[in-house]
C-alpha cells in the first residue's frame, strides 16, 4: 500500500482495529467512494484506493479480504451480476467458516430483490441507506463493537445515575436533550456514557451538525440533508428552492421531520452544536428554536442532542430534558489527569510541578486532555496557575503550544496555514495534496497528535481556539499556498448539475472562492448562499478590506429571505462598520435607514450606537462618539470593541481610572489582542507619566512582555515604540528618545504624536518643531481627523508649558465641540485663572 494512503488514519488506528472490505460494483463507485472517504484507508479496503496499481488483482482481493474482519456488500443490480463481486462473496464465505470474517453487512442501493442473495447472506441485510454518511456511521459502530470501545467518564457516575433516573421517570418520552456547559466540560461524553448503558442499541457514532451564531432552521436543514441522500447538485438546488419557498413555520416542521427521519430510522442521534446560538441576549429561546423543539415528535429515545454553552432551564419548552454539566470535582480531575499522563508515559520532574498543573486544569475534562496531549510532546509545558478562567488559560498558552508543535518546521507552519485558509479539508483532498507536497503527511500527523486538528467523518479542521493564530500564518503563506488553493477550487468548479455533492465541503469552498476573488462559474454559482457571503465578509473585514466586506454584506442582506434574524442583523452590522471604515457615506445612510427594519433588540441598538460612535470617533468628534458609546449597556452588550473605544476616549481626556477599567475588560474579552494591549500599554505609561502612581513598573513591564509576544504572533509592530517610551518615561533615558526620533519615519502617526508629546515634555523644542512640521504636512495631504484632534491636545499642553496661554486658549476654543467635556474641564485647569471659562 502506498504511504500516502496512511496519513490521517494512523492516528485513529488501534493495534487491534477491525477493517471493513467494501465489496461493490464499479457502477456504484460514486456512492462507495464517499463511504471510503468517511472511513479512511486505516479502517477499510477499497480497491481503487488501497490496491497497488498494476498489481495482481485476484491476489490483492484475497489479501484485502483476509486483512478484514467485516465484509460489507453494496447490493445492486450491477453488483449482483458482477463476476468480481461474486468471487469476493465466495472468498468471504470461505473465511467465514474459518472465523476470520466475523461480521457481514449488506446495504441495498437500488430495488434489487433480497432473494437474489445466497441464502447464507440474506439474514445479514441491514437496510436501504439514504446516504454514504449513514453507511459509514454504521460501519464505524461495527468496528467499535469488535474492539469493545467503551466511553470513559471518570467522576460522573452520580451525574449518569441522575440522568438515567430522569429518563426513566418520563411518561411520554422526550425527543431531545439540551446539554449546557463550557466547551470541553464533557457534555457529549456524559450523554454517550448514559446511552451506552440505557440505550445500548443506539449508534455510538453520531450525526454532527454545527450551528453558527447567524444560522437558523434553513442552515441546519441544509446540513442535515447530507444524511438524507447522496445528492446531485441539481437535485440539491431544487430541494433548497422548495424549502425556501415555505413559510417559516413549515420550514421548522420540515426540519423536525427530517431530523427524526435521519436518526430514528437508523438508531442514530443528531448532535446539534449550538455554541452560543439559539438563545436571545436575555437567555430566552429564539422563536425558531422554540418552534423546532415543539415540532420534534417524541420517539423511543431522545434522538436530538442540543449542545450549548448557554444555560436554559427549559420551563417554557416541551418534549425535552434539560441538563447542565458542572465542572468535575477536584479529586476526579486529578484522577483523570494522572490516568492520562500514565497512559502517555509522561514523567513530570517534581510533585510540586504536577500539583501546579493539576490545580490549573481542575474541573475541566477537555482542558485536562488538552494539557496531557501537550505534555506528551513537551514536558516543560506549565499552565499558569494564577488564572482560573479556562478560556483565558488556553488563549495564554496557545502560541506557545503552536510553537512547540511547529518546532521550526516550515512544512508544519504552512500546514496550519492551509487548514486555516481552507477551513476544512476532506480525506480525498488531503490525498491529492500529498501528490505535490509529501511532507504534508508528517505535518498533518503532528497536528493530529497534538490535538490541534480534529476529524469529523472524512473532514479535518483546526480546533477553534487555534484559529486566530492560524489566520495570521495563512496571511503569511498565502502566496506559497496559492497552487493548492487553486487546485481545491478548480475541483469544485467542475461541479455540474448531475454531479454528486459533498455538502460539508460546499460552504467552505464557496467561501474560499469568494475570498480568493475568482469568479464562481458554472453550476456552482447556483449554490451560493448569503450565509457564505457573510462569512466571507467577516474575513474581509478582519483583513481590513472594507470595500470588499461592504459589497459582500450588502449582497447577503439583499437575500434576507434566506437569512435568520441573526444572519440579517450580522449582514446589517457589517454594512455599517464597513461603510464607516471605507468612508462610504451613502452606505452608512443605508445602514441608518435599515435600523428601522431590523428586529428590535438591545443588541441591535448596541450595533447602531456603536456604528454611529465609530463614525464620530473617526471624524475626530470624541464628544459625540462618547455619547453614542455610553448608550450601549456595558453590563451585557458591550464587546471588546466597545470597551477599546471607550478606553481610548477616556485615556484622551485623562480619565485614567475609567480608561484602565475599560481596557482590562476589553483584554479579558479579546485576550492577547495586540491592538488592545497597545492601548493598555499607552494608558499605563500615560498614567505613570501624569500621576507617578496607579501604574506599577512591574505592571507596565508585564504588559510590554505580552505586547511583544502579540506582535510576534500577529505580525504587528507596537512593542518597539512602547518599549522606548517606557525607557524615556520611567528611566528618563534620553538615548531611547533620540533613537525613537531617528526612526520616526517608520512609526504610525499615533506613535508619532506620542513622541511629539514626549519631546515637548523633555524640552526638545528643535526636534519638537521638526516632527510637528512633518505631522502637519501629513495631515494636510491626507485626512486624519482623529490625529488632528490629538495634535491639537499636544499643542495645547505644549503652549501651556511654554506660558503661551493665548495660543492654548485659541486651540481649546477651536476644538471645544470635538473634545469631551471632561477633557475641556481638565485643559481649562491648566490655564491661568483669568483665562478660565466662567
What does this structure look like?
With 838 residues, the protein is α/β, with parallel strands linked by helices. Helix content is 58%, strand content 7%. It is built from 40 helices and 13 strands. Strands 2-1-3-4-5 form a five-stranded parallel sheet, sandwiched between helices. Strands 7-8-9-6-10 form a five-stranded parallel sheet, with helices on both faces. α25 runs antiparallel to α26 and α36 (749-761) runs parallel beside α38. The N and C termini lie far apart (90 Å). The model is unreliable at 1-16 and 381-394 (pLDDT under 50).
Strand order of the largest sheet: 2-1-3-4-5
What class would the helix/strand composition place it in? alpha/beta
The number of helical segments is 40
Describe the biggest sheet? Answer: 5 strands, parallel
Mean model confidence by pLDDT? 83
Uncertain regions spanning at least 5 consecutive residues: 1-16, 381-394
Rg value:
31 Å
The count of strands amounts to 13
How much of the polypeptide forms β-strand, as a percent range?
5-15%
Shape: elongated
Distance between the termini: 90 Å
Helix content bin: 55-70%
Amino acid at each position: 500500500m502506498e504511504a500516502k494512503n496512511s496519513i490521517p488514519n494512523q492516528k485513529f488506528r488501534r493495534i487491534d482495529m477491525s477493517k471493513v472490505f467494501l465489496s461493490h460494483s464499479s457502477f456504484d463507485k460514486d456512492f462507495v467512494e464517499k463511504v471510503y472517504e468517511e472511513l479512511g484507508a486505516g479502517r477499510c479496503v477499497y480497491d481503487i484506493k488501497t490496491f497497488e496499481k498494476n498489481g495482481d488483482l485476484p491476489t490483492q482481493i484475497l489479501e484485502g479480504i483476509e486483512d478484514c474482519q467485516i465484509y460489507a456488500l453494496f447490493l445492486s443490480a450491477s453488483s449482483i451480476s458482477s463476476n468480481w463481486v461474486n468471487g469476493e462473496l465466495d472468498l468471504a464465505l470461505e473465511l467465514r467458516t474459518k472465523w476470520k470474517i466475523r461480521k457481514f453487512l449488506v446495504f441495498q442501493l437500488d430495488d434489487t430483490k433480497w432473494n437474489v442473495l445466497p441464502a447464507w447472506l440474506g439474514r445479514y441485510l441491514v437496510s436501504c441507506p439514504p446516504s454514504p454518511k449513514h453507511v459509514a456511521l454504521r460501519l464505524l459502530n461495527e468496528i467499535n463493537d469488535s474492539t469493545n470501545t467503551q466511553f470513559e467518564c471518570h467522576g460522573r457516575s452520580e451525574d449518569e445515575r441522575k440522568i438515567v433516573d430522569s429518563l426513566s421517570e418520563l411518561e411520554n418520552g422526550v425527543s431531545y436533550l439540551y446539554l449546557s456547559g463550557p466547551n470541553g466540560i464533557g457534555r457529549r461524553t456524559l450523554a454517550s456514557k448514559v446511552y451506552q448503558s440505557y440505550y445500548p442499541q443506539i449508534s455510538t457514532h453520531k450525526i454532527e451538525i454545527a450551528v453558527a451564531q447567524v444560522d437558523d432552521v434553513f442552515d441546519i436543514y441544509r446540513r442535515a440533508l447530507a444524511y438524507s441522500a447522496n445528492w446531485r447538485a441539481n437535485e440539491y438546488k431544487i430541494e433548497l428552492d422548495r424549502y425556501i419557498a415555505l413559510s417559516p413555520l413549515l420550514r421548522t416542521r420540515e426540519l423536525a421531520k427530517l431530523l427524526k427521519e435521519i436518526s430514528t430510522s437508523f438508531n442514530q442521534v443528531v448532535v446539534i452544536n449550538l455554541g452560543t446560538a439559539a438563545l436571545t441576549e436575555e437567555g430566552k429561546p429564539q422563536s425558531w428554536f422554540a418552534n423546532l423543539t415543539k415540532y420534534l415528535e417524541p420517539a423511543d429515545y431522545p434522538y436530538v442532542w442540543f449542545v450549548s454553552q448557554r444555560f436554559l432551564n427549559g420551563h417554557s419548552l416541551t418534549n425535552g430534558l434539560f441538563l447542565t454539566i458542572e465542572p468535575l470535582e477536584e479529586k476526579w480531575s486529578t484522577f483523570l489527569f494522572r490516568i492520562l499522563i500514565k497512559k502517555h508515559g509522561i514523567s513530570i520532574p517534581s510533585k510540586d510541578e504536577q500539583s501546579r498543573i493539576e490545580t490549573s486544569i481542575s474541573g475541566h475534562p477537555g482542558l485536562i486532555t488538552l494539557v496531557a496531549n501537550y505534555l506528551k510532546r513537551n514536558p516543560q509545558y506549565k499552565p499558569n496557575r494564577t488564572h482560573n478562567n479556562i478560556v483565558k488559560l488556553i488563549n495564554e498558552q496557545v502560541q506557545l503550544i503552536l510553537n512547540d508543535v511547529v518546532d521550526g518546521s516550515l512544512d508544519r507552519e504552512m500546514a496550519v496555514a492551509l487548514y486555516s485558509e481552507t477551513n476544512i479539508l476532506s480525506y480525498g483532498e488531503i490525498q491529492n495534496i500529498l501528490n505535490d507536497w509529501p511532507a504534508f503527511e508528517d505535518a498533518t500527523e503532528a497536528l493530529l497528535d497534538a490535538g490541534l486538528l480534529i476529524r469529523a467523518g472524512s473532514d479535518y479542521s483546526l480546533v477553534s481556539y487555534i484559529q486566530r493564530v492560524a489566520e495570521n500564518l495563512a496571511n503569511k503563506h498565502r502566496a506559497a499556498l496559492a497552487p493548492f488553493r487553486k487546485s481545491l477550487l478548480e475541483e469544485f468548479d467542475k461541479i455540474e448539475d448531475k454531479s454528486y455533492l459533498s455538502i460539508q465541503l460546499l460552504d467552505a469552498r464557496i467561501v474560499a472562492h469568494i475570498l480568493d476573488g475568482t469568479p464562481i462559474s458554472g453550476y456552482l454559482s447556483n449554490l451560493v448562499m448569503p450565509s457564505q457571503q457573510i462569512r466571507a465578509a467577516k474575513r474581509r473585514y478582519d483583513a481590513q478590506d472594507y470595500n470588499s466586506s461592504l459589497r459582500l454584506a450588502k449582497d447577503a442582506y439583499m437575500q434576507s429571505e434566506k437569512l435568520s434574524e441573526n444572519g440579517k442583523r450580522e449582514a446589517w452590522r457589517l454594512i455599517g462598520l464597513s461603510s464607516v471604515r471605507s468612508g462610504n457615506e451613502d452606505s452608512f445612510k443605508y445602514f441608518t435607514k435599515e435600523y428601522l427594519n431590523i428586529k428590535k433588540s438591545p443588541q441591535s441598538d448596541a450595533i447602531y450606537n456603536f456604528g454611529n460612535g465609530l463614525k464620530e470617533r473617526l471624524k475626530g468628534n470624541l464628544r459625540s462618539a462618547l455619547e453614542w458609546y455610553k448608550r450601549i449597556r456595558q453590563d451585557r452588550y458591550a464587546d471588546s470593541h466597545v470597551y477599546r473605544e471607550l478606553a481610548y476616549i477616556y485615556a484622551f481626556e485623562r480619565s485614567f481610572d475609567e480608561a484602565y477599567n475599560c481596557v482590562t475588560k476589553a483584554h479579558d474579552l479579546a485576550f492577547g489582542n495586540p491592538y488592545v494591549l497597545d492601548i493598555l500599554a499607552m494608558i499605563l505609561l500615560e498614567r505613570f507619566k501624569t500621576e507617578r502612581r496607579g501604574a506599577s513598573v512591574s505592571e507596565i513591564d508585564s504588559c510590554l512582555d505580552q505586547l511583544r509576544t502579540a506582535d510576534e504572533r500577529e505580525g504587528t509592530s507596537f512593542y518597539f515604540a512602547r518599549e522606548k517610551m517606557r525607557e524615556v518615561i520611567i528611566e528618563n533615558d534620553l538615548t531611547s528618545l533620540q533613537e525613537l526620533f531617528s526612526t520616526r519615519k517608520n512609526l504610525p502617526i499615533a506613535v508619532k504624536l506620542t513622541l511629539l508629546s514626549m519631546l515637548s515634555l523633555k524640552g526638545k523644542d528643535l526636534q519638537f518643531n521638526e516632527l510637528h512640521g512633518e505631522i502637519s504636512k501629513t495631515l494636510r495631504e491626507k485626512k486624519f481627523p482623529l490625529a488632528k484632534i490629538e495634535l491639537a491636545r499636544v499643542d495645547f499642553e505644549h503652549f501651556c508649558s511654554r506660558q503661551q496661554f493665548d495660543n492654548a486658549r485659541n486651540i481649546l476654543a477651536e476644538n471645544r465641540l470635538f473634545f469631551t467635556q471632561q477633557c475641556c474641564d481638565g485643559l481649562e485647569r491648566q490655564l491661568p485663572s483669568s483665562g478660565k471659562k466662567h
